[in-house]
Amino acid sequence: MATGISEMSFHATTRLYAQHFCTASPFISPLRKNAKANQRRSLHARSWGISEKTHNFQNINLSQPFQSGKKFTECHCQLASDIANLSHDEANSTWVQDAVNKVSQVLGSTNGKGAIEFENGSAKHGEDPTLVMPEPAKDLQPKKTRGSSLVEDEAWRLLVESMVYYCGGPVGTIAANDPLDSNKLNYDQVFIRDFIPSGIAFLLKGEYEIVRNFILHTLQLQSWEKTMDCHSPGQGLMPASFKVRTVPLDGDENATEEVLDPDFGEAAIGRVAPVDSGLWWIILLRAYGKCSGDLSVQERIDVQTGIKMILKLCLADGFDMFPTLLVTDGSCMIDRRMGIHGHPLEIQALFYSALMCAREMLAPEDGSADLIRALNNRLIALSFHIREYYWVDMKKLNEIYRYKTEEYSYDAVNKFNIYPDQIPPWLVEWMPSKGGFLIGNLQPAHMDFRFFSLGNLWSIVSSLATTQQSHAILDLIETKWSDLVAQMPLKICYPALEGQEWRIITGSDPKNTPWSYHNGGSWPTLLWQLTVACIKMNRPEIAERALEIAEKRLSIDKWPEYYDTKSARFIGKQARLYQTWSIAGYLVAKLLLEKPDLAKTLWSEEDAEILNALNVMVDPTNPRRKRGKVLKKTYIV
Ligand code: GLC
């Protein structure tokens, strides 16, 4: 799509220009091409003259930067002493007030303009008309829930403490916040995927600003210079994580600047680009609009461009025969070698979900017609492919067991030439007569029969799975409770790779030993996805049961990242403590079970048009069915 590409590069340039404009204001340093490598790659902000300890500032007025020919961005400064005054006044507040005040004080300028004032326990908009701040829904206003448990209160406190600030404004939450951990690696960064439950917890509480800031700042990182050994990935890539660094300013020993330093996988263990980050970003953007009612963020030109850049990267033509996204091992939550390269379910479910969300948000305009058509075609093809080929239950397993192989024809039953011997012995015993699931991966002559929780749950949430399949997945979780939930929800995958398989597939990874970490470990953060899926299918009691189990241990165990052993008895061997997405996952589950109606903002309903197209595709009387003629290619991306 020639016009699309030039349009995108135009907007990418404008976005970089916007950054430059911001940093070139009197208070923020210009982008300096000759700065040190990490500074060059980072978003810059600057305090001046005096060390950062005595000054603080904000440049958070990012609203409507490219519209009406107005000034793009404004950078206001705020003295730390003023913040100190505000902090003093807060001394008697409840913790929720503290949290909201904290957010308010860093967002507000010292004269009160643009600040969210805290009055009688509710956030109130300040006077600055340029600052777009949605009114929190009445029943979402931050308040201490009467009857909230001690565990819940502790979780909120920890979540607030994990907040990360940039230029005085909250922009995310740190991955793990254990003060006693001396080897933090990159757990002191804001991970895009880890922030999703944090962001949703804030949204559900009516705290919108941190999510808005996160969306806009990570958007700026999207078009950042990123290379590994002279090679650059596609432009729409979102980072896996970022860190706020305070660095000395070149040529001025008394000054420092804050920079946002993203990691696109160039520093990550294994050097894997995070395919899921951009997909989660789109999903969170849609949730922000739904929860806050503020559609102005998704309508911004730069945000629209950001969505298109992610889609362009995902929808680009390649060598693939399958509509699924082809990715390398470790490009999602499981971010190290676990044999999930190819077309892993988790990525496909997030891809489908992001396409659904993007379709809702893309402004209908001439320039995006091709993209929207491409997106619609992909939704149909992807949905057919996953529903048809990834699904296993007793009936399907028995079909595979009796497969003929080496079929050469357009109408082969065993299209991927799967040898029945591939059916693993554990699955023959494990598959319940009621229930089923979507397998982990599908490649030529290869089905990865492992059960991956996130992919299955998000297939329910996004309506990638049919209603029947969605119920069957929940049936399986219920039936296999002692394997998948046991003493802590939820197994990341089942079963673990052991022995020779573990050696070959993980490369003898000592962190991924059987029933540990990604290899059959149990991750409390998955509670929130389980909860959304259960509420969507009107079976909240399953999530309630899981939450009850988690609630008994999480706080006592200091909110571990993951649990080990077959039945999740131990805190994970190398699990971080005070892991933010364990805390946020618990909170989202708790909030949603209290107010199930709110979960609607997070899922996508089955789309009638897609369903209709699928019916046409599987209709045996349809003459166009042969050789996939239904999905005529009508677009160029
Ligand atoms: C681990 C997880 C990854 C997560 C990161 C930060 O690497 O595998 O999914 O984002 O920790 O918590």
From TrEMBL:
GO terms for cellular component: chloroplast. It comes from the Eukaryota. InterPro entries: 6-hairpin_glycosidase_sf, 6hp_glycosidase-like_sf, Glyco_hydro_100. One of its GO terms (molecular function) is endo-alpha-N-acetylgalactosaminidase activity. Transmembrane segments: none annotated. Residues 120-146 are annotated as: Disordered. The keyword Nucleotide-binding does not apply. Its EC number is 3.2.1.26. Keywords: Carbohydrate metabolism, Glycosidase, Hydrolase. SUPFAM superfamilies: Six-hairpin glycosidases (SSF48208). It catalyses: Hydrolysis of terminal non-reducing beta-D-fructofuranoside residues in beta-D-fructofuranosides. GO terms for biological process: sucrose catabolic process. Belongs to the glycosyl hydrolase 100 family. PANTHER family: NEUTRAL_ALKALINE INVERTASE 3, CHLOROPLASTIC, PTHR31916. Invertase that cleaves sucrose into glucose and fructose. This is Alkaline/neutral invertase. It comes from Rhynchospora pubera.
